[in-house]
Amino acid sequence: MAVELTRPALAAEASALPARALLVTLLRPPVILYVPAALFLAAFFLVPLGLVVWMSVSDPEFGFGNYATFFASRYDLAVLARTFQTAFVVTLASLVFAYPIAYVAARRGGAVGGFLLGVVALSFWTSFLVRTYAWMVILGAKGPVVGLLTALGVSPPPRLLFTTFAATFAMAHMLVPFMVLALYAVMKRIDESYMRAAASLGARPLRAFLTVYFPQSLPGVVNGATLVFITCLGFYVTPTLIGSPQDKMIAGRIGQEIEQLLDFGAASATSMILLAAALALFTLYDRFFGLDRMWR
Amino acid sequence: MKNARALSLRGLSKSYLAGQNAVDSIDLEIQPGEFVSFLGPSGSGKTTTLMMIAGFSKPSSGEIAIGGRKIDSVEPYDRNIGMVFQNYALFPHMSVADNVGFPLRMRQVPKAQAAKRIADALAMVGLADFSGRKPAELSGGQQQRVALARALVFEPDVVLLDEPLGALDKALREQMQIELKRIHRELGVTMVYVTHDQGEAMAMSDRIAVFNRGRIEQIGSPAEVYARPQTRFVASFIGDSNLIEGVIGRGGSVDLPGFGSIAVGRGDLTPGTPVDVLLRPETIRLSKEERSPEDICFTVDEIVNYGDSFLVIGKSAGQELRARVPGLDMPALARGERCVMRWSKERVHIVPR
Ligand SMILES: Nc1ncnc2c1ncn2[C@@H]1O[C@H](COP(=O)(O)OP(=O)(O)O)[C@@H](O)[C@H]1O
Ligand SMILES: [Mg+2]
After folding, report:
1. Ligand 1: does its nearest atom lie under 6 Å from the Cβ of B47?
2. Model's pTM, two decimal places?
3. Considering only CA atoms, which residue is closest to atom 12 of ligand 1?
4. Which pLDDT score is estimated for A169?
5. Lowest mean pLDDT among A23-32, A88-97, A254-263, B286-295
6. What domains can you pick out in chain A, each with its CATH number?
7. How distant, in Å, are the alpha carbons of A229, A241, B165, B191 from that of B159?
8. For chain B, which residues score pLDDT lower than 50?
9. Closest CA relative to residue B319, chosen from B261, B236, B244
10. Is the pLDDT of residue A293 over 60?
11. What is the pairing mode between strands B296-305 and B309-316?
């Protein structure tokens, strides 16, 4: 009852005193609750992004020169293409690794599920840098993998470190936990009765999985893939430290432009192009595979 | 219907924890085309029994046969049992028609024939115009109908339903009960129906199996389990009841302290045997006119008006009793007032203890 009385009262005030009414509206709970978040986003996201945009069109001189240079450079375009290609492969690989883990954890539960999630969480909490160094040791010239290959008579043993393969593999490994958690969150909500219903209707386990379980886990696949793909696009440490110097990814290129060439304008433009390309890709993706629409 | 099959459970047990049987040695013969309800409180083993029949849970001992064929080693997907789940378990990414067609696709039924059977099944549950919808676009009652159509379309040998109406509101539940009964009559398929709602079991079943602590306490027609319960649990779980402790006297009578001796013609019971006497509330009549010195006095504690009838709670010979009086027969009574209670002797039922 109290609410119904206050609202007309506020409306009356609004027509009488516009300025004060505006203030009242702004200070009313729903609006005021946005303020901290809005301030935070403005200070730490909008302003820096605006600065990057500004730098990309004003350094060294005003105009779109930095962008023109990027699109005229075969090298830069190749780096951009390779970045997306690598991110795609990494996403696919981490999906292949993560799906069975998440599936078993979600459906088995109990000790097995807890153990799997524990291992995933442990690796999730270990920093990218530490895990990158771990891969350097594992794949290094004196590491266990090369040692094993030598012992098996592969000679000369292949060089593993500083290759595109090493970077891709390590990135996939690092992103598997994200994928597992995204998949697990969705799979945990797929009730056991769906698989039972499928079985009672005559579906063998594989058929039931393909026709009933997998389609229902797709939202998790999309969430996980988005997360991994975006994270991978911006990966800097791993490809720089253990990837092939010839196969630079775009974050590495931006780093090079800033640290070695001191070309802040070009670096800003490259960043903006990466952002725009990612947004464009996801807009297209959402248009054609709007998976949230799948079962509505 | 050609697919109606008998279902037998013999000595069926399931224990999750050692030494504790969730289902304890159940024997049950269900006739082809019969509608049998599993009725019992939550945790009494109904779902566990159903899961063993469906093949999702392995019996600790005992055997299950359908149409005389043992199915213990048959996988769930080969059992040809239709199942309706409490949460419906409709596949959210498939249309209504695809859901209902799912079991036909699994059986490689030719497309044209499948289309006809899907249409027939949907028409049977009154959803002929909904085939293109997704489950999320249907109401709870409609989803329930789709689940039913899906469980029936492949002509299963037996249909199992686990509290299928539990999530629906009362009016819809009653409507679905009637419809389910109609479908059962039309198809004549063997149905096992799990519920904890005794009214539902009474209204729908050919026979009711009353579950308690993993055992079947009694199996019989609704009228039988209501009028002649064999255990105290069945007497109190089904319907409203008054149970009065008594002792078998001489010549087939029963002595009820404070109520006197009633001839019940149970010469088969040894005098001195302690028993419970079941007195259904609707068999008790209340009156303000005393007729004979044998009349039993009843003191009214509480009166609840249900519109069509009154529930009168009171005491007689120190024992709390409930009487259900039709609205038209209700004498003008007030709380605290004393009146006379009568019952007809042939309505009294002895429950062994
Ligand atoms: N998966 C399980 N693990 C352990 N105990 C179970 C499991 N499922 C059921 N139970 C136990 O078995 C008993 C019967 O349960 P259930 O068959 O679900 O009863 P109802 O369906 O009659 O409510 C309950 O005591 C329940 O706790
Ligand atoms: Mg149950």
Report:
1. yes
2. 0.82
3. B22
4. 93
5. A23-32
6. 1-58 (no CATH), 69-293 (1.10.3720.10)
7. 47, 63, 15, 5
8. 1
9. B244
10. no
11. antiparallel
Report the top-level CATH class of B240-352: mainly beta
Q: Which of B52, B102, B104, B157 to mutate to test the interface with A (most CBs of A within 10 A)?
A: B102
Question: Mutation test of ligand 1: which of B48, B57, B212 has the most ligand atoms closer than 8 Å to its C-beta?
Answer: B48
Res. A232: pLDDT tops 60: yes
Tokens 């539940």 belong to B173
Length of chain B: 353
Ligand 2 centroid vs B192 CA: distance in angstroms?
A: 13
Which residues in chain A are contacts of B95 at CB distance < 8 A?
A: none
Tokens, residue A33: 């609750």
Q: Around ion ligand 2, which residues have CB less than 5 A away? A: B 47
Mean pLDDT score of chain A: 87
How confident is the model at residue A217, as a pLDDT?
94
Ligand 1 atom closest to residue B49's alpha carbon, by position in its atom list = 17
- Cα of B22 to ligand 1 centre, how many Å? 6
What is the edge-to-edge ordering of all strands in the sheet holding B23-30?
B23-30, B7-14, B61-66, B69-70
Q: For chain B, what are the domain ranges?
A: 7-232, 240-352
Q: Rounded to an integer, what distance in angstroms lies between the CA atom of residue B181 and that of residue A189?
A: 33
> Which CATH number describes the domain made up of B7-232?
3.40.50.300
